[in-house]
Predict the 3D structure of the following.
Amino acid sequence: MESPEREKHGGAMDEKVCLITGATSGIGKATAMGLANMGASVVMVARDRGRGEAALAEIKEGSANASVDLMLTDLSSQEDIRRLADEFKDAYPRLDVLVNNAGVIRSKRVTSADGIEMTFAVNHLAYFLLTNLLLDLLKASAPSRIVNVSSAEQRNGTIDFDDLQAEKGYKTAKAYGQSKLANILFTYELARRLEGTGVSANCLHPGAGVRTNLGSGVSGVFGFTVRALTPLMKSPEKGAETSIYLASSPEVEGLSGGYFVKKAEARSSDESHDERIARRLWEVSAELTNVPAHNL
Ligand SMILES: NC(=O)c1ccc[n+]([C@@H]2O[C@H](COP(=O)([O-])OP(=O)(O)OC[C@H]3O[C@@H](n4cnc5c(N)ncnc54)[C@H](OP(=O)(O)O)[C@@H]3O)[C@@H](O)[C@H]2O)c1
């Protein structure tokens, strides 16, 4: 039986395969539900089996779409990301939409199993590595789309090449802002490199103050502000609207290298448009993930 949502969207994404990271909660889960409602085959990436299976059951039931799958991956681990890319390529012959959405905010400097500062590892390097590992499949599936979830916090970010991983001093907002600016620089550089391939790359801000788990465990001023504003925040479904739009709308078919807010193109910070910074960040990221810098 079709769900009312599925009927409303009329299977607009039937036959499309979408991979979504951070699909256990918040904006990622709402994006998975939205695309499943449109009839897409959705592959949800989660690091925790319990949370992953709970979200999987919720989306299957809510969308009445049986083509929803779960793959377990800790996106702070490059070995895990490589395993995910292999597992995905073994299971699926095509990839129409990759949504890089998983993100963290940390109060203190923590390092990943690879010894990389956690915010930089999950919010930026995981986007970079997973995308690079899936590029061949995305190109073979063209027209296909890459959607990177950034944040308006990109405006407060700067790429500190002298201390990318906050070894000299850690500040929550600085690390988060840098990672969200990195999402945009990565998207713009990727779009330039993908010109003529039929694979688009766009990024977005989901809207300020979406009620999710992000920042819930953060202490200090940042965490206090997040918790104080929680009752006023918008729903994850509202926060997922621009991700779903970029993943599925015919209005953006062929459009690449854009930053979107509320389903409309917007201007990101001046630094995000600096091509030298984008190229340098690409090279450093390639080195940190062992991807050939000229993979593209
Ligand atoms: N909420 C907002 O107001 C807001 C505003 C601007 C931008 N954003 C962006 O929106 C995106 C989604 O965040 P959200 O607000 O929906 O937050 P959220 O509810 O905390 O969701 C984050 C997702 O990322 C996953 N994740 C975190 N670390 C991971 C890891 N190492 N491996 C695998 N998955 C991991 C989480 O999994 P677990 O369930 O296992 O923790 C969760 O599914 C982020 O990129 C964020 O920067 C959010």
Summary: The first strand starts at residue 17 and ends at 21. The mean pLDDT is 94. The pocket of NAP is lined by residues 22, 24-28, 47-48, 51, 74-76, 101-104, 122, 149, 151, 205-206, 209-210, 212-214 (CB under 6 Å).
